[in-house]
Amino acid sequence: MASDLTTANPNPDFKEEVREFFSEGIPENWRTRLRAGLRLEPDELIAYQKKLAARGWGAPTWPKEYGGTGWGPQQLYTFWREAANAYAPNQFHQGLELIGPIIFSYGSDEQKKKFLPPILNGDHWWCQGYSEPGAGSDLASLRTRADRDGDFYVLNGQKTWTSYAHVATHVFVLARTSTEAKRQQGISLFLIDMTSPGLSIRPIRTMDEKHHTNELFIDNVRVPAENLVGEEGRGWEYGKVLLDRERMVTASTAIFLQQTVAAVRDAASRRKIGSSLLIDRPVFASKLAQFEIEVRALQIMVRRLMADAARGAQSGPRGSMVKLRWSQLLQAGTALWVEALGPEASHFRALTGSPLDEDMPYALQGALYSRVTSIYGGTSEIQHNIIARRALGL
Amino acid sequence: MDFLFSDEQDMLFQSADRFGQERFACLGRAELLSDPEQAELGRLWHDMAELGWLMLTIDEAAGGIGAGSGEVMALMQAMGKHLIPSAYVATCILVPALLKGDEDAAQTVLAKIGDGSAKASGAFFEADSGYHLHHVQLEAVRKGDTYVLNGQKCHVEDGADADWFVVSARTSGASSERLGISLFLVPKDAPGLEVEKFRAIDGHRHAKLHLREVTNAVLIGEQDNAIANIESAVALANCAHLAEASGSMRAAADLTLEYLKTREQFGQPIGKFQVLQHRMVDMMMGCEEAESMVFDAAQLADRAEPIDPLAVCAAKVRVGQCGLYVTQQAVQLHGGIGFSDEIIVSHHLRRQMMLNLAYGSIDHYRSVYAEGQ
Predict the structure, then answer these.
(1) Which of A6, A294, A384 shows the shortest C-beta gap to B299?
(2) Which of A133, A188, B15, B243 matches a 20 to 30 Å C-alpha distance to A68?
(3) pLDDT tens over chain A, length 394 residues
């Protein structure tokens, strides 16, 4: 099956099936925001998740025994390509790709029963309580504490950059259960209901004027001991199960970049400058070609990554490389889109009730949002450090 | 070939790698290249013939091996790794792709290429053609049973030692029309043909041709309809060069990584400095990007004929950029010694620069891509 990623599609029926699924029920008004690399609104993402779940495709990357599709890399690749082509979004990942796999790998049977189906069905929305004001790239320096008190743990501390805490039903939190052990060893992982007394959030305003993220205050929050994942003090190492899965998440994200390519091309094909279209002007055409060629190269790198996965081989630094290149290209692409739109791209909000022109304000919002893609999930500089250390032995 | 060599392709790479290592060590490279008799290079060519490499892409019907693009990629990566400055791409990739017909003259040339007794190249570019293969002014006029050729070709890649030239000529139409271009096989000693020879900075040897009333030329393929054949042959030559480029930049990056671990300054290996670590990672990413594109191009070339021209354009742009970046930085990270002749990284940079001049520059292919998209 490995070679299928590069040769003709081995299973045209599957491709047809996926295409058929995406041929309806994807609202037109999602398109511009997806092209901008922006997340849809939570209610839209939940609706999408429910639609997939109803088809049995709620968790494309999960094994069958937990309600996943059990698809291999070839099918995943087809699925994501078709989704991207149809202007469907990438699924929201914090439940599906971050805590879900940790629960099915290390969680108790009760946790699996209680938490996995609602992730799949879109009934629970998870957010990630990892970063703290003093623990960003150096996550192991986190200070939020969890003290055992009978059948409960009592948590105290502050989290930050808690994206979608304002809509989440649950949060997974890393907290220190011991200060004696080595930094990483005293950390435990907890599953917490967002309605727990003592949890409060404050929105963080960001430069794109879109509310994604928050501060999360944890003040004497009592968490049932059964909501500890695995063993006390081993929360850090459970994250390792994600490392192996990360390349698929990265690959899917990068596949959706082609939506941005189309945005630039469309805008440049519409805009007239003097008697010619912007897309026919050599300087712009050359920049667009450069961008498209680099995206093309990235898509080939993604196929190589997935070919590794298909044959069960390690990818070494390829996943990090794809993440780095994807964020660079999303930034370049959205900036080029703004340039293609011209001065009206600055019309961010209407003041007199008039409608905004096509693509506004999302192109600009996407260009601004794209700046955080080289910061979250390990900054580009941290990625460089990781590759240098792990792959190059420096 | 799923971003991996098959066992056969891997064996070919290994054997070419050994060949390069044994026969083309960096030390003494300058002397080897500057020998006016080209004695050692001649022996290398002879040995490559013995190994069967020279007939790799020649069709089985014409007495060759008829290997696919994966084999070409494997061989060319090793050639790039060791920077073997041979006329391989022109003689063994480009010309066999041009000579697909059953003309006796073509068969003779292919047989001689295959056994190593002759070299050949394609002559397309003219003083004001840019890198456009369809801008042809060199003229061929039919007179009875023969053609009379007049005009110039300003650059023939690896043409200095060619025994035969496959020359594009205009048999009808205006100077930049796609229709009206024909191919002619011209021996180097044809009366009226003057061959000026040049050495490049990377050891390759090129030519410039002046044709004055040349009559000793054989029409190859159909008159007036050669452009598609020329373009697809050049695309294959480009693919081979891309594989060479990826092998070369990977070698330069590997050597640089080794150097970062061994070279000490300020009391520690310079690879401990984060600014150099990050640069090194960017170089490795360049190699990864280029290699992925080269694999993809080879896969495409085997799947369809002619290969999708936009895929080749994209690869020419990006592999070219990666190759320049990686080898420029390889020189930079080596410091002063990187600038010297005795360290191979400077040779890699020279080769990458020349590869971008061979059958079209980065800007040329980017604008072709832009027009074709």
Answers:
(1) A6
(2) A188
(3) 233 454 445 678 999 999 999 999 899 999 999 999 999 999 999 999 999 999 999 999 999 999 999 999 999 999 999 999 999 999 999 999 999 999 999 999 999 999 999 999 999 999 999 999 999 989 889 999 999 999 999 999 999 999 999 999 999 999 999 987 678 889 999 999 999 999 999 999 999 999 999 999 999 999 999 999 999 999 999 987 887 788 889 999 999 999 999 999 999 999 999 999 999 999 999 999 999 999 999 999 999 999 999 998 999 999 999 999 999 999 999 999 999 999 999 999 999 999 999 899 999 999 999 999 999 988 999 999 999 999 999 9
Cross-chain CB nearest to A384 (options B277, B292, B313): B277
Cβ atoms of residues A175 and A155 within 8 Å: yes
Q: Cα distance from B261 to chain A (closest Cα, Å)?
A: 7
To the nearest 10°, report the CA torsion of B211, B215, B216, B217.
80
ipTM of predicted assembly, 2 dp: 0.93
Name residue B221's amino acid: G
User: Cβ of B289 under 8 Å from any chain A Cβ?
Assistant: yes
Rg of chain B on CA atoms, in Å: 21
Q: CATH number of B120-224: 1.10.510.10, 3.10.129.10, 2.40.110.10, 3.90.940.10?
A: 2.40.110.10
Q: Which one of A290, A304, A384 has the shortest CB-CB distance to B292?
A: A304
CA A188 to CA A182: how far, in whole Å? 13
Chain A closest-CA separation from residue B167 CA (Å): 31
Q: Is B120-224's fold the same as B228-372's?
A: no
Can you give the residue ranges of every domain in chain B?
Answer: 7-114, 120-224, 228-372
CATH class of B228-372: mainly alpha
- Which amino acids of A are annotated catalytic? 246
The chain A residue lying nearest B272, using CA atoms, is A394
d(CA A156, CA A144): 6
Q: Which of B4, B303, B370 sits opposite A285 (nearest CB)?
A: B370
Domains of chain A: 2-91 (no CATH), 125-233 (2.40.110.10), 257-391 (1.20.140.10)
Query: B306: cis peptide before it, omega within 30°?
Result: yes
Give B277's contacts in chain A (Cβ within 8 Å). 384-385, 388, 392, 394
Token pair in block for residue B266:
């300020």
Per-residue pLDDT tens over the stretch B287-307: 999 999 999 999 999 888 888
Cα B130 to Cα B139: distance, rounded to the nearest angstrom: 18
Q: Which residues of B touch A380 (CB under 8 A)?
A: none
Q: What are phi and psi of B48, to 5 degrees?
A: -65, -35
CB contacts, 8 Å: A324 with chain B: 285
**A307 min Cα distance to partner chain B (Å):** 7
Fold of the domain spanning B7-114: Butyryl-Coa Dehydrogenase, subunit A; domain 1 (1.10.540)
- Angle at the Cα of A318 from the Cα atoms of A287 and A31, rounded to 5 degrees: 50
Searching chain A, which residue's CA lies closest to the CA of residue B317? A293
